[in-house]
Amino acid sequence: MKIFQNKNFVKLFYAALFSQMGTTIGNMTFAFYLLDHFSNQPSYATFAELMYSLPTILVFFLVGVVADRFDRKKVAENCDWIRAGLTVILFGSLFLNSIPLIFFILFLRSAVTKFFFPAENSLVQGILTKEQYAQAAGLNQMLFSIFMVFGVGIGAAIYKTVGIHGAVIVDFLSFIISAFLIRSCNIPTSARLPNGKVKWNEMSFKSSLRDFKDGFIYIIKNRLLAVLVFGFFIFGIVNGAFAVLPMFTMKYELSPNNYEWYASFFAISLGFGLLTGSGIGTLIASKFKPHQLMIYPILITGVLIFFLGFTSNVAVFLAVVFIIGMCLGPINIAIGGWLPKIVHPKLMGRVSGWIDPLMMLAQSLTLGIIAVIFPQFVVDIDYLYYGMAAIILLVFIFYALTLPKLSKAFDLKEKKLKRQEQNQPNIKSV
């Protein structure tokens, strides 16, 4: 693939991989740690997940603005250095065995993480052509699936062998490697600073809110973009539920004595499913419209999540999760390849700045609801799966009614712009 000839893309690709992989390992091992030490209080594991999503409330209006107004390369690199420093503090706080302090460090580290991906995604858009966006989305999804498969498995192995401290060390090393990879990139100024150079003293709370509002207006005015961004809110609900439900299912229903390993098998099954689905999606992306790669997999996903509530067999549960992963792969490729075509490069950071808050809001709401209702009001975990399935099926209906029309309108607009560019005379200065 020609995309691998772009050294900057390869380095950013692996930088994002190491950054996310270490975070995933740390997140999973902290959940195991809390469930082991506070098995009578499953809400602790849910609150730990909330520490990864709630910081969005503090920084949601800044992340996209920072990615658009400042040097995107420096923003992404400095996020890694800061998270590495906070991880060192987290390592020390474990010896104090203070749950509030650990939660606070996790909260701060997550807040810094929110600035990384809008900056990194905007850099990727600036160094690729439109024809390479879908390829990049497919490759990103495939490698994400690989680290999901091995990352969570390694996290479980580390927790069983060297414990939570070993997982934090892996977390620290991942951020360091990611920072050095980003530093080694040679990215043109036009991609790093598409809106020109801005000084920190030129920024204010008022200007940040104005830029954040501009991103919202830009999304609302583009109906197709607004519909796609709404999809991220739904993905946040799924992410929030899948962050804790598989662990609860294994610990309290399917495998109480070996829940750590089977919870990691859930991630392995989902990861292999994503890997398979991403490979298939990358191959067929050019043969189908993006909306077709979204609508039908969403329907199948909703039906399969509903089926998860019925199964009482671990093997069947993991097999269904594998198929769900296969469905999610093409959906992510479709959205990942579609968004960069729709969004202007100068506004990519601000649009990305809205995506993460919506996902984290949905994830936080989901985790908060689960923490309140389980097991105090809803004793049977199966009903939580039924509720999630119902939401996904409603999204299928919504997308089936809106996406085909909006996709057709977007294609017509693109063809019109291409004809105008081809008919425009080539005027050379004398």
UniProtKB/TrEMBL annotation:
Residues 8-407 form the Major facilitator superfamily (MFS) profile domain. It is a multi-pass membrane protein. PROSITE patterns: MFS. The chain crosses the membrane at residues 12-35, 47-67, 87-108, 139-158, 164-182, 224-249, 261-286, 293-310, 316-338, 358-377, 383-403. Gene3D superfamilies: MFS general substrate transporter like domains. The keyword Metal-binding does not apply. Keywords: Cell membrane, Membrane, Transmembrane, Transmembrane helix, Transport. Its main location: membrane. It is found in: Cell membrane. It comes from the Bacteria. The keyword Transmembrane applies. PANTHER family: MACROLIDE-EFFLUX PROTEIN. This is H+ antiporter protein. The lineage of its organism: Bacteria, Bacillati, Bacillota, Bacilli, Bacillales.
